[in-house]
């Protein structure tokens, strides 16, 4: 996908009827991303705020248009009005990133969500995370909408190199540079650590670059077998190609690789 392609709404990043809530959005990228901070709440925070388990299923919503439908039902105010905990949509870091991506595109700014690992939540660990990139001054600027305004990382509006690793960058860190794969995983779990987690996020990141921003727990192709330890050298070689192609950022090659049977998101996931 070209930079102009990243300017257009994709399968999950159209606003739908929720566009009526987008009045008065800022025009600067960081201002747009800052709006998202007041719209989404993490499941653990939602539970602590007394939000019932029926609403925790909102974290399984993929399309932004449906997220905005939920928000409108809770509070029909414009998106620029920060919601209290009870009237935010329940979502993960993926939802912060994809909603920011959708709003940036709505304002005509090339943007994309990236899946990978953050280094700034726990010292010495690479934790499963999603962020947003927008195009400015000839480069992709990385911004973490979830922590804008918080004392979590220096410059969340322009993350430093290495603060966040995409899935492919993490795979290179492991395969090429010899990083311990057991340092990469999902916070709050004992089992979701290791090379399989890196493989999964590398494939999810490729899908996101091809306009399929899936949920953090979506699995397809040989991902389930990978998590179970049932893949071998051929699959790792495929992941080498995924990491190299994502790093090269060539739209034609990204689309060609993504179209392979092991990597394309099936129609059963929607």
Automatic annotation (TrEMBL):
UniProt-recorded name of the protein: Transglutaminase-like domain-containing protein
Ranges where the Transglutaminase-like domain occurs: 90-144
Gene3D superfamilies referenced in this protein's UniProt entry, alphabetically: 3.10.620.30
Pfam family, one: Transglut_core
Species name: Actinocatenispora rupis
Entry superkingdom: Bacteria
């Amino acid at each position: 996908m070209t930079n102009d392609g990243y300017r257009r709404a994709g399968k999950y990043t159209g606003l739908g009827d929720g566009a009526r809530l987008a009045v008065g959005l800022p025009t600067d990228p960081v201002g747009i991303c800052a709006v998202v901070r007041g719209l989404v709440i993490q499941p653990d925070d939602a539970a602590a705020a007394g939000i019932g388990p029926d609403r925790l299923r909102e974290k399984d919503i993929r399309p932004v248009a449906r997220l905005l439908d939920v928000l409108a039902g809770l509070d029909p105010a414009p998106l620029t009005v920060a919601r209290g905990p009870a009237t935010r949509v329940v979502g993960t870091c993926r939802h912060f990133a994809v909603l920011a991506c959708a709003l940036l595109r709505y304002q005509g700014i090339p943007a994309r969500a990236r899946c990978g690992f953050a280094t700034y939540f726990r010292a010495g660990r690479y934790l499963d995370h999603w962020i947003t990139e927008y195009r400015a001054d000839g480069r992709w600027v990385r911004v973490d909408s979830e922590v804008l305004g918080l004392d979590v990382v220096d410059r969340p509006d322009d993350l430093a190199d290495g603060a966040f690793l995409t899935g492919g960058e993490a795979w290179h860190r492991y395969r090429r540079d010899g990083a311990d794969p057991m340092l990469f995983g999902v916070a709050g779990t004992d089992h979701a650590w290791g090379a399989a987690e890196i493989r999964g996020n590398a494939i999810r990141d490729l899908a996101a670059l091809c306009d399929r921003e899936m949920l953090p727990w979506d699995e397809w192709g040989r991902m389930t077998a990978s998590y179970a330890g049932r893949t071998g050298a051929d699959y790792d070689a495929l992941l080498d190609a995924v990491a190299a192609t994502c790093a090269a950022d060539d739209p034609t090659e990204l689309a060609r690789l993504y179209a392979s049977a092991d990597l394309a998101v099936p129609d059963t996931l929607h």
